[in-house]
Amino acid sequence: MDRLKKNAPQHKARVHLGDELQVLRRRLAELEDVMAENLQKVEALQESERNYRILLDESSDPIFTFYPDGQYRYVNNAFAEGVGRKLNEIIGKKIWDVFPKDEADKRYAVVKWVFENGLTKVIEVRVPKPDGDTYYLTTVKPILNAQNEVESVICISKEITERKRMEQELQHLSTHDILTGLYNRNFFEVEMARLQLGRQFPVSFVVADVDNLKTVNDRYGHSAGDALICKVAQQLQKSFRAEDIVARIGGDEFAVLLPQTDETAAQAAVDRLRKNLASLDDPLLGLSIGLAVGRENSNLSDVMRMADDRMYQDKVARKKTHR
Fold this sequence. Notes:
The chain is of the alpha+beta class. It is built from ten helices and ten strands. The chain folds into two domains: 60-165, Beta-Lactamase; 176-321, Reverse transcriptase/Diguanylate cyclase domain (Alpha-Beta Plaits, 2-Layer Sandwich), CATH 3.30.70.270. 55% of the residues lie in helices and 20% in strands. The strands form two sheets. Strands 2-1-5-4-3 form a five-stranded antiparallel sheet, with helices on both faces. A five-stranded mixed sheet has the order 6-8-9-7-10, sandwiched between helices. Helix 8 (222-239) crosses helix 9 (263-280). The protein starts with a helix and ends with a helix.
C-alpha cells in the first residue's frame, strides 16, 4: 500500500506527459495540414502567376511596367516588337535608352505623374516607323504595395492606328474637295475669317471660273468635265505659293487667298497662271479670272465679291473676244 502511494505521483506524471504528447501530436498534425494547405495555395498562386505571365507575354497589346526612375521592370513581346528591339535590350534599361530624348521625356512625364499622384492616366502615343507611324491609346496605372504606396506603374496599350487614319481621313475630307484635292469652300471661309482678324494685310483674292464647262459636259460627258476641273486645279496649285489658300468653292469656280500680298505680287501670280494654262495648248481649257486686294480695315467678304464681279467682267470680255 505504501509502495502504491509512493508510485502515484510518478503515474500521474506519466499520464500528464502522455496527454501533452497527444496534444503535441494533434498540433503537429494540424500544423502539417496548414502547411500542406499553404503549399497548395502557393503552388496555385505560382500556377496562376505563370498563367498570368503567359497572358501578358503573349498578349497582342503592348504591356510594360516601370520603376520610379524610368527603368523598364517588365515588357511583353508585343511591346518589344512594336519598338523593334529584343526583350533583353529593353528590360532593365531606361526609357531614354529605347526612345529619342524628346519622345522619352514626354512619356516619362506621364509615368512620373502617375507615381506621384497614384492615379490612372490615359494618353495617346505615336511610334514613328519607316513604313508609317503607329498610334496607341495607353492606360497608365499605378501598382500599390501593402502600405498603399506606388511601387511601380503598368502601361497597357491598345493600337488605334486604323482609327487614327480614319479620323485623319475624315478631317481631310471635312476641309478638302474630293475631286481635286484642293481646299473646300468651308475651309476657305474659315481661313478668310481668320485673316480678317489677323495682321497679314494686304490680303489678295483671285476668283476663277472654268469657261464652257457645261458645253464640255454635254458634248464629251461628265468624266471629261471632271478631268478639265482637275487640270485647272493642278495649274492653280502650280502657279501659287504653298502658303496661299487654293480652294474649289463651287462646281466650276475656284478661289485663292493670298495673305501678305499686294496687287503687284497677286497680278504676277495671275500672269503665271495664264502662262501655265496657255502652255497646255488645250482648246477646251479656258479660265475667267478676277483679282481684288483687301487692305487693313477692309471687309474681306466685300473684297471677295469685288474679285467675283471682276471675274464675270473678264468672262464677258473673253466671250466677246472669242466670237
